[in-house]
């Protein structure tokens, strides 16, 4: 019997009688991170990392939460469950299951470059590895984070010289916090959309230190912003909320910006290839580092990535899940919705 089964509710461990990131309500759920495609409302019990708990509380309200640290093991019906850093966002974790000498690992979402705030991705030796493949094509190759930060800072400096505001479009949980690191050298207060600000406050409650920010006041007008830096979620772009920042330029931060046409399609002034997911090389290095005999590939370009693994001597199969509708998968189309969330 496999240690993890792929069911209509999600990834199920029958031996332990719990699910990992289930997309339908269950009794017991182990949660890899707080993005809404992996953390759903309605479970009776949630197990997550310590940093993830306040984020789940902010998004899902009060529930029966239990939190543990990375590399801390608890036993659920004889199955040993351990969380390891995934490097995706703050608190994001891989889930290691061990039972009768067999080890399975579910990666959740992850990136292999250490972004300085999310915890460095840590490969875990296992028999079976279940990996995401959001950017599982060779075209997706990321530059080092600091190189992207330098491009963002140069763009902001140009905007300041032209007396324009700089509006960075980025997901409210994950990328927005990385951008605060990018703009820190300007040594000024950064303005946040309400959705980003709410996540900022939840993260501060974990004890993590972040640069000073100010929430955009709903009563504010364009006279309140002069060559300022603003961070907003994809849904805010193109909405009436943006008018108060005129004159401004927008910079979309997404792995999808690797494809140059996406910048034009979004009518963005700039596109920065900043992703919270592993690129092609990162995915390959992660898979090889686990030493897994079998690899299941979930959301993204799972067909192409799985086929490549098989052609290169690593047994692999595709798995259909309901993940991928949270950040990178939707950032392009959500930019047109006008939603403020």
UniProtKB/TrEMBL annotation:
Q: Which UniProt keywords apply?
A: Exonuclease, Hydrolase, Ligase, Nuclease
In short, the EC number is 3.1.-.-
The reply on keyword Ligase is yes
Please identify the protein, giving its name as recorded: Ligase-associated DNA damage response exonuclease
Coiled coil region boundaries: none
- Note the superkingdom of the native organism: Bacteria
> Top-down, what is the taxonomic lineage of the species of origin?
Bacteria, Pseudomonadati, Bacteroidota, Chitinophagia, Chitinophagales
For this UniProt entry, the molecular function terms from Gene Ontology, in alphabetical order, are: exonuclease activity; ligase activity
Give the main EC class: hydrolase
UniProt keyword Hydrolase, yes or no: yes
The family database entries (InterPro entries) matched by this protein are listed as:
MBL (IPR050698), RibonucZ/Hydroxyglut_hydro (IPR036866), Xnuc_lig_assoc (IPR026360)
The family database entries (NCBIfam families) matched by this protein are listed as: Xnuc_lig_assoc (TIGR04122)
């Amino acid at each position: 019997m496999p240690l993890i089964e792929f069911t209509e509710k999600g990834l199920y461990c029958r031996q332990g009688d719990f699910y990992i990131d289930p997309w339908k309500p269950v009794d017991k759920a182990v949660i890899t991170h707080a993005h809404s495609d992996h953390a759903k409302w309605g479970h009776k019990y949630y197990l997550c990392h310590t940093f993830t708990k306040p984020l789940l509380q902010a998004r899902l309200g009060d529930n029966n939460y239990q939190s543990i640290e990375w590399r801390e093991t608890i036993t659920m019906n004889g199955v040993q469950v351990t969380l390891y850093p995934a490097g995706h966002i703050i608190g994001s974790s891989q889930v290691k299951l061990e039972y009768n000498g067999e080890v399975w690992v579910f990666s959740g979402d992850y990136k292999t470059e250490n972004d300085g705030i999310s915890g460095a991705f840590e490969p875990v030796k296992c028999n079976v590895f279940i990996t995401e493949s959001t950017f599982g094509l060779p075209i997706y190759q990321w530059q080092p984070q600091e190189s992207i930060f330098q491009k963002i800072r140069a763009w902001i400096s140009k905007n300041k010289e032209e007396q324009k505001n700089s509006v960075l479009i980025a997901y409210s949980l994950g990328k927005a916090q990385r951008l605060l690191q990018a703009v820190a050298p300007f040594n000024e207060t950064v303005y946040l959309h309400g959705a980003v600000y709410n996540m900022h406050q939840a993260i501060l409650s974990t004890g993590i230190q972040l640069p000073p920010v100010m929430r955009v006041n709903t009563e504010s007008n364009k006279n309140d912003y002069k060559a300022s830096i603003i961070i907003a979620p994809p849904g805010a772009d193109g909405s009436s909320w943006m008018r108060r920042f005129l004159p401004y330029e927008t910079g979309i931060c997404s792995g999808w910006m690797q494809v140059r046409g996406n910048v034009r399609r979004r009518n963005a002034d700039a596109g920065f290839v900043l992703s919270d997911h592993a690129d092609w090389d990162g995915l390959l290095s992660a898979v090889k580092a686990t030493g897994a005999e079998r690899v299941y590939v979930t959301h993204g370009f799972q067909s192409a990535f799985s086929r490549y693994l098989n052609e290169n001597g690593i047994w692999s199969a595709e798995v259909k899940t309901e993940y991928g509708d949270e950040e990178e998968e939707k950032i392009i189309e959500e930019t047109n919705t006008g939603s403020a969330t």
